[in-house]
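Need residues for this backbone.
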């Protein structure tokens, strides 16, 4: 047993979990990097920590300073927890479409929440752009200054995965890794992990798993950024090449319909006891497709992005699922008590 010295040191070094049913169905070893086991229960704790450490190193973040960010939730939760541990404050701008559970967790962690209508990136009132302007204003008025985390275009985000996620996967498998699959929000996880693995072996194949409504599947297959459809999946679905995505070494791209990804989320919970969010369903569906592409006998790693309780009111809510014409797992319909 190791002692981790505080929250910051408890981020990362997550285990790889063999996904038994996906592995048996494909004849490959399909492994999930258990990012939901980070202290903030998501992959974004790593990006939050690296962004804060980078700002400290540059002298931009001073003791007691404010960290401002536009986030779908998980980055905000990571930032708020790390900020508490290191003596900063957080102001989080969040689109009002995000789950209540994530908002509640942000408030619980002491973040100041600014809820805004969800509008496209090109709109000046988009949550990301708004958070940038708010950071500029607060930098002038706050006694200890303020910074904009800017997770989409701040490459300290992908550096987290170049320095930690990728090397952890490589070392845990003794280099026996044939493929890596990830969805994209900012692109930090996909690009950073892919870069670290490819640096160690050019033979590692990298695949993007994209939900409908995102433009990257089209970009990596045709060269054109084009988005069609929509998805209930939170935290992923990108419409542009962020700075974090630039030069990401992507070999394959798959588009995963919600119908396919939610079934995988339910299957992982019902049959393997893994309670995970919607983006994990997209990732595991992508890993199964890459396994089929490469053939049996390969080892493919993907990311178990965050914990499922964050989505009880949506992804695990029969009424919500029915309203989106998505399958409802039988156990969600059963009454909660058992007659003995
Ligand atoms: N899954 C979830 C649930 C997320 O919140 C995020 C980040 N927004 C991702 C996946 C994607 O991570 P990244 O930003 O590194 O692309």
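Answer:
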């Amino acid at each position: 047993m190791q002692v981790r010295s505080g929250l910051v040191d408890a981020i990362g070094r997550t285990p790889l979990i063999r996904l038994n049913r996906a592995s048996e169905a494909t004849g490959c070893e399909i492994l999930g990097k258990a990012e939901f086991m980070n202290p903030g229960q998501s992959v974004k704790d790593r990006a939050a920590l690296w962004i804060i450490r980078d700002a400290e190193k540059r002298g931009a973040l001073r003791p007691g300073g404010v960290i401002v960010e536009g986030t779908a939730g998980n980055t905000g939760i990571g930032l708020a927890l790390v900020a508490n541990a290191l003596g900063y404050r957080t102001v989080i701008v969040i689109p009002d479409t995000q789950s209540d559970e994530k908002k509640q967790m942000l408030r619980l962690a002491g973040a100041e929440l600014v809820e805004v209508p969800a509008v496209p990136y090109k709109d000046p009132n988009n949550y990301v752009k708004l958070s940038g302007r708010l950071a500029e204003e607060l930098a002038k008025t706050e006694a200890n200054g303020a910074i904009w985390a800017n997770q989409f275009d701040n490459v300290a985000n992908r550096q987290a995965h170049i320095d930690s996620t990728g090397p952890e996967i490589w070392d845990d498998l003794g280099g026996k890794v044939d493929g890596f699959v990830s969805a994209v929000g900012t692109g930090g996880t996909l690009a950073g992990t892919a870069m670290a693995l490819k640096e160690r072996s050019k033979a590692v194949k990298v695949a993007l798993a994209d939900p409908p409504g995102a433009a990257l599947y089209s970009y990596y297959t045709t060269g054109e950024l084009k988005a069609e459809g929509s998805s209930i999946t939170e935290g992923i679905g990108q419409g542009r090449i962020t700075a974090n995505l630039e030069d990401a070494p992507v070999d394959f791209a798959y588009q995963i319909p919600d119908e396919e990804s939610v079934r995988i989320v339910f299957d992982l919970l019902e049959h393997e006891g893994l309670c995970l969010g919607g983006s994990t369903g997209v990732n595991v569906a992508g890993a199964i497709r890459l396994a089929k592409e490469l053939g049996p006998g390969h080892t493919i790693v993907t990311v178990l992005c965050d914990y499922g309780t964050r989505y009880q009111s949506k992804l695990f809510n029969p009424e919500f699922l029915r309203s989106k014409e998505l399958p409802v797992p039988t156990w969600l319909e059963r009454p909660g008590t058992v007659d003995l």
